[in-house]
Design goal:
Order of helices and strands of chain B: HHHHHHHHHHHHHH
CATH topology of the largest domain in chain B: MetI-like fold
Helix content of chain A: over 70%
Strand content of chain B: under 5%
Shape of chain B: globular
Structural class of chain A: mainly alpha
Largest sheet of chain A: none
Number of strands of chain B: 0
Number of strands of chain A: 0
Helix content of chain B: 55-70%
Oligomer: heterodimer
CATH architecture of the largest domain in chain B: Orthogonal Bundle
Radius of gyration of chain B: 24 Å
Number of domains of chain A: 2
Shape of chain A: globular
Largest sheet of chain B: none
Low-confidence stretches of chain A: 1-18
CATH superfamily of the largest domain in chain B: MetI-like
Chain lengths: 307, 291
């Protein structure tokens, strides 16, 4: 069977003399990949190029457009609403990423120490991850409302209600980050837990015998060994932070007075409220570039700290 | 998005092993207490949804307490109001049809990438993977315009088909099928089986474990999806449950009604999770699959 010979740059000659079986294998391969290829070309590649193309036009709902080159991008740099959304998203990421990484690390460490009920606790802690952000937002609206669970208890205790979703930007973004972290930490928790399980226990035990306490063991042994996994988690959670939308849409609508107006929210507004598709597409390209640059920086950092 | 997490395991050596085992098997009450508190934080909000959904409208819910009487009125009111059943049907169609189509097309593509040789195979595979770098929001405007031009707004195909190009699914299928021995497929070919029947009779049955994992995650991903259905469903009848729940929230229905709607939305996820919990949790650790 020629179909088992490995392909190489020099393998072409061999293939020219291939049997009909191999050639029919080639056609089968093309036919099998075809449905997915068509889907990718139409719904991934075309829109990706389309985003760039559209961002250079003033594409309107009607389909009329003229090429405006970089007008959308220069407009963006002078647009207080966009720049505000950029700052808001960066502040949100600065709150959300450390929060979710710490929560997933703590829960992973707790699960790793458990010797009894592991399956139950792992499942219980992962539970929010299988539900939607919209559901999480609806639940936490009730918890955070001015007459909601927490404030109800505070009032009962004679303490002033806390403005979870009506306060200043830091307060509102923290509340939203808590909701996203509650819904989302389960994934990172499991990834970190898998990393913890791979740390040889002998290493930790000899450290204990040498007199290292739990904190020292964590910072001197566990964290350095876990570094690649931690950075993987950092990258995916940062990307998640830049995509925040669902919770904001349900809980604050971008408010109060744009305190939680994120980049994706700005894109949604420009596209589906003002139908300014050209500008919205440009915001989409900006989101892509931001996520791309940040993951490159993190990857570079990861490589360096790996050596 | 797969993390390779394997590292050499622990070697056990003679003498201190029993002492270590004793230490390891010691039940740690402090850890269990902390774990219970954390689990309390993830479970109680769901319990609250069900308790509020079963409480009479306007019942005193703050501070949190059980109602004096239980009622199904809210659930019935939600289910019979407006298009709620239709939203449930839409979400079911969106999730189930997507699962079936993603599994078939991804298994076909994964089989081709793993076991067939054809021109452009490598570049095609890597360009599929490259789309993982592009957040869906970045291309959602041109995608919407494209679907609108093809008259897919407010249709099931417009909702479903653009979500099928799933690079994670193709990647996982390819990795899995690459691990299957070539002899299996060649033996079938010698027996005269056509490619299509090799796919149905050999590839699909052998890939059941990875198909199940993928199926669960694709299901949850679609059931919980929000932004895409939000922009594609422009009429009330075409909404999915997440979009419907968000709209009920905006319409300021009573807390009890909203929680009843929330409870109905989340039940399928909870059932899937209750039945397949161990399986879902293990596949995240094993394959890095992200819902």
């Amino acid at each position: 069977m020629t179909s088992t010979t490995p392909v190489s740059a020099l393998g072409r000659q061999k293939r020219r003399g291939s049997t009909t079986a191999a050639r029919s294998g080639m056609w089968a391969g093309i036919l099998f990949v075809l449905p997915m290829l068509v889907l990718f070309v139409i719904f991934r590649f075309v829109p990706s190029l389309g985003a760039i193309g559209m961002s250079l036009t003033d594409y309107k709902l009607s389909g009329d457009y003229s090429v405006v080159w970089f007008d959308n991008y220069t407009r963006m740099l002078a647009d207080d609403v966009f720049l505000g959304a950029l700052t808001t998203t960066l502040v949100y990421a600065a709150i959300y990423v450390p929060l979710v990484v710490v929560v997933s690390m703590v829960t992973a460490l707790v699960l790793n120490r458990l010797v009894w009920g592991t399956g139950f606790f792992r499942g219980a802690l992962f539970l929010p991850y299988v539900t939607s952000f919209v559901l999480a937002a609806v639940i936490w609206l009730w918890i955070f409302a001015s007459d909601g669970l927490v404030n109800g208890l505070l009032t009962e205790a004679g303490v002033d209600p806390y403005p979870f979703l009506t306060g200043n930007q830091a307060q509102v973004l923290t509340s939203l980050a808590v909701v996203s972290a509650w819904r989302g930490f389960g994934y990172s928790m499991l990834i970190l837990l898998a990393g913890l399980k791979n740390i040889p226990e002998d290493l930790l035990e000899s450290a204990t015998l040498d007199g290292a306490n739990a904190t020292q063991r964590f910072f001197r042994i566990v964290l350095p060994l876990l570094r690649p996994v931690v950075f993987f988690v950092l990258v995916i959670e940062t990307i998640a932070a830049f995509q925040v939308f669902d919770t904001i849409y349900v809980m604050t609508g971008g408010g109060p007075s744009r305190a939680s107006y994120s980049l994706v929210y700005a894109l949604y507004d420009q596209g589906f409220k003002f139908f300014d598709f050209g500008y919205a597409a440009a915001i989409g390209v900006a989101i892509f570039l931001l996520v791309f640059v940040i993951s490159l920086i993190q990857r570079r950092f990861l490589d360096r700290s790996n050596t | 998005m797969t993390a390779t997490l394997t590292r050499p395991g622990t070697e056990t050596n003679g003498a201190p092993a029993t002492a270590r085992r004793r230490r390891r098997n010691r039940i740690r009450p402090g850890t269990i207490l902390v774990a219970s508190l954390l689990a309390f934080g993830t479970i109680v909000p769901f319990l609250a949804v069900f308790i509020l959904a079963l409480s009479p409208e306007g019942a005193r819910t703050i501070p949190f307490q059980l109602p004096d009487e239980w009622t199904f009125d809210n659930l019935i009111a939600v289910l019979t109001a407006r298009n709620f059943l239709r939203w449930t049907l839409n979400t079911t169609i969106y999730s189930i049809v997507s699962v079936v189509l993603v599994l078939i097309t991804a298994a076909m593509a994964g089989y081709a990438f793993a076991k067939k040789r054809f021109p452009g195979r490598e570049i095609m595979f890597w360009s599929f993977l490259a789309t993982l770098m592009v957040p869906t929001q970045a291309t959602i405007i041109p995608l919407f315009v494209l679907v609108a031009r093809l008259e897919g707004i407010d249709t099931f195909w417009g909702l479903i088909v653009p979500t099928l190009a799933n690079s994670q699914a193709v990647f996982l299928m390819r990795q899995f099928i690459m691990g299957l021995p070539d002899e299996l497929f060649e033996a079938a070919k010698i027996d005269g089986a056509r490619e299509w029947s090799i796919f149905w009779r050999i590839v699909l049955p052998l890939t059941t474990p990875i198909l199940a994992t993928l199926g669960i995650f694709v299901f949850l991903w679609h059931w919980n999806d929000f932004l895409w259905p939000l922009i594609i469903a422009q009429t009330d009848e075409m909404r999915t449950l997440t979009v419907g729940l968000a709209s009920l929230n905006q319409e300021a229905v009573s807390q009890a009604r909203l929680m009843a709607a929330a409870a109905i939305t989340v039940i399928p996820c909870l059932v899937v999770f209750a039945v397949l919990q161990r399986y879902i949790v293990n596949s995240v650790a094993a394959s890095g699959i992200k819902g």
